[in-house]
Amino acid sequence: MRRLYTLIFVMLYFCLCAVPAIPQDRGSTIPIPKIDLNIEEAESPKEVALSLQILFLLSIITLAPSIMVLMTSFLRIIIVFDFIKKALSLQQVPPNQIMFGLALFMTLFIMWPVFEKINNEAIQPFVHQNELPASERLTMDEFFKKLSDPIRDFMLRQTDEKYIGFFMNMRGLPAPATFDDVPTYILIPAFVINELTVGFEMGVLIFFPFLVIDMVVASTLMAMGMIMLPPVMISLPFKIILFILVDGWSLLTQGLFVSFM
Known about the structure:
- The chain is mainly alpha-helical.
- The chain has a domain at 68-206.
- Helices cover 71% and strands 0% of the residues.
- It contains ten helices and no strands.
- It has helices at 2-18, 45-62, 64-70, 74-87, 96-127, 140-158, 161-171, 184-223, 231-245, 248-259.
- Helix 4 (74-87) runs antiparallel to helix 5 and helix 8 packs across helix 9.
C-alpha cells in the first residue's frame, strides 16, 4: 500500500511539472472578465422605489415554489397520490419523483386556462407596453390586479364559504358583501384548508376498497392458522390486480380533474 501511495505521488508531481507555466505577457493570455458589484447610496426617491421593486420581484421568485403548491391544484393532487400509494401498500413504486412530476403536469393541465388568461390579460400587455397607446398601457397596480384576479377567481370557486368566514371571524373582519371584498391574505389560507379537507376526503374514499381486501386476507390467514405470514405480502398482488383491472390511474386522474370543475 505504501508503494502505491508513493507511485501516485510521483505521478501527480510529474503531471504538475508537465503543465506549462502561464506566460506573463498580457497580450498572450486569455482575458478573464471582471465581475463587479457596487452598492451606492440612492440619490432620489425614484432610485429607492426601483430598488424596492427589484427586491420585491426577487422575493416573489424565491416564493414561487410555495405559490405553486399552495395556490394551485397541486396540493389536492399530491395528497390523493400519497393516499393511493399507502392504500396499495407501495413504498418505493412509483418513486416520489414520478408522483411529483405527474402532479406537476396535471396541475399545468388543470390550471392552463388560468395561466392563459394571465398571459393574455396581464403579461403580454405589460411586456409590449411600448407598442400600445398611452391610454391602454398598464400601471403597476393594474398589472398586479390583472395578474392576481384569475388566481383569486380559481381559489374562490374551489373554497368553501365556511372557511372564508372562519378566517374572517378570527381577524374580526365584517362579512364581505361580494367575493371581491375578501382579502387575499384571508383567501389563501382558506383555500389551503379547503384543499387539505377535500384531499383527505378523496383519499379516504380511495382507501376503503383496498382496506376491505386487507381485512379479507388477514381473516383468511387467521382462519388457516398462518399467523406468522404478513397479510400485506398476500394482499398486495390482489390490490394491484384490482387497481389495474379497473384502470385505476385513468379513473384517479379523471376524478381529480372533475373535482376542480
